[in-house]
Amino acid sequence: MSEPLAAEVARRRTFAIISHPDAGKTTLTEKLLLFGGAIQLAGEVKAKKDRMNTRSDWMKIERERGISVVTSVMTFEYGDHVFNLLDTPGHEDFADDTYRTLTAVDAAIMVIDAAKGIEPRTLKLFEVCRLRDIPIVTFINKMDRESRDPFEILDEVEQKLALDTAPMTWPIGRGKSFSGTYHLSDNTIRRSDAEEQTTSVNGPESDAVAGLLPENERKAFIEECSLAMEACRPFDSQAFLEGHLTPVYFGSALRNFGVRDLINALGRYAPPPRDQIADTRKVAATDEKMSAFVFKIQANMDPNHRDRIAFVRVCSGKLQRGMKARLARTGKPMSLSAPQFFFAHQRQLADTAYAGDVVGIPNHGTLRIGDTLTDGEHLVFKGVPNFAPEILRRVRLEDAMKAKKMKEALAQMAEEGVVQLFQPEDGSPPLVGVVGALQLDVLKARLEAEYGLPVSFELARFNVCRWISSADKAELERFVTVKRGDIARDLDGDPVFLASDGFSLNYEAERWKAIKFDAIKEYQ
Ligand code: G4P
Known about the structure:
By secondary structure, the chain is α+β, with helices and mostly antiparallel strands. Helices cover about 30% and strands about 30% of the residues. Strands 28-25-27-26-30-31-29-32 form an eight-stranded antiparallel β-sheet. A seven-stranded mixed β-sheet has the order 2-3-1-4-5-11-6, with helices on both faces. Strands 18-17-23-14-15-22 form a six-stranded antiparallel β-sheet.
């Protein structure tokens, strides 16, 4: 491996922020980008969120709802590191994309609202991170507001997520009296009105700390902070990298306090691009040969061009502008003439991208989600999974004459990852599956705008979907035959079992012991 390649890989950190809506992800993103100089003024990301993402406002529903449907990537440099922040939609509605994005990161920041603790969306996204043991840095946000007891929050993380916690800082005061953090490992403090300044102190009892707190809060702080130092787990790098332990920082994104801790933690503790598993071998990020996979397709980013951008995570080697790559699924060569980097506002042609980087590749439907690109080698990454949809609907076409066109359009949408498509074995109309209701609106709007196909959705009698497999092929065949009315095929022709609810699913799983019912399917 050449030195410059290894050095470029070592300085990259590719991460996402996971949180429940309103916990402060947008505010934090903005402050992170501010550190990286990617934006000039705080307020730009927020303004963009409020005003809608102009770059992607091609679709009416985005304008109507005032949200961005796009999961974007933002690259910035800070210190010696290059950070690739993969954004996941913060709105109540979310999509398969949100899950898939987490398969393209090496670490995540989990933002928790100090008053609310672990909320449902955080839990869900955490579970996806856990599938790949992604290391997580925790940020307890909004300490400047009324908040819960820090020990209680740590306990909740441990209980609900089965994740060990190692507090790295301790809040000095809470709500109105929040005035800084105490750094547990080196007995220093930072004041929220002068974060740049680190002051060494003799311990939680020191006068410098006392001076920051109202008199009636001092005793409690000393007790709490001493207890945190004695009783909490120390940070353990190995446990963090294995996804078993999270370092915890307290702060206020709004006041831009504690954000520097996070960015430093990512630089210092988070892993560089991880090795990726392919069908033929393990691919090290420092491997000279280029390899990459597609984890997201974004259509119509530019309303004038009706282009499709495939978001590709580079896994090894150098992805260079103008190179010819091999598309594993077809075996055909593909010229990468205009790969792009994304910054907070603009795109820029990418001359060279390294492992961990995310580039956008404009194409006209050649690339699908899960596709592997190499510089010639025959290998396929197993990295991008399908998650069982949580909402299933039957698509009703208003003009029955256009059935064939609709079949093609739905297949195209499924390849792009807008929805998942299931063809029932009994020949009834196709079902679409999504994890967030917004995806249905996107599908409807796009079928109408791009294919001239007005559709509506009907409730299906199914609400649960599982991929089925078995080591005993005959038994699988028997199951598929017996349950024909409840079996459908996905886009790749793999069988799924459809059930009305979790109860019936469990009932069948009990009866058919040799059949595996999976909520996740790896691509390819
Ligand atoms: P999200 O992307 O996770 O949905 O959250 P976002 O950053 O939009 O923050 C949600 C709300 O919480 C915003 O208030 C934001 O200003 C506020 N907030 C974020 N971080 C902090 C913090 O550290 N302290 C306090 N006190 N508030 C915080 P909003 O009223 O919805 O919007 P705005 O009108 O204030 O912009």
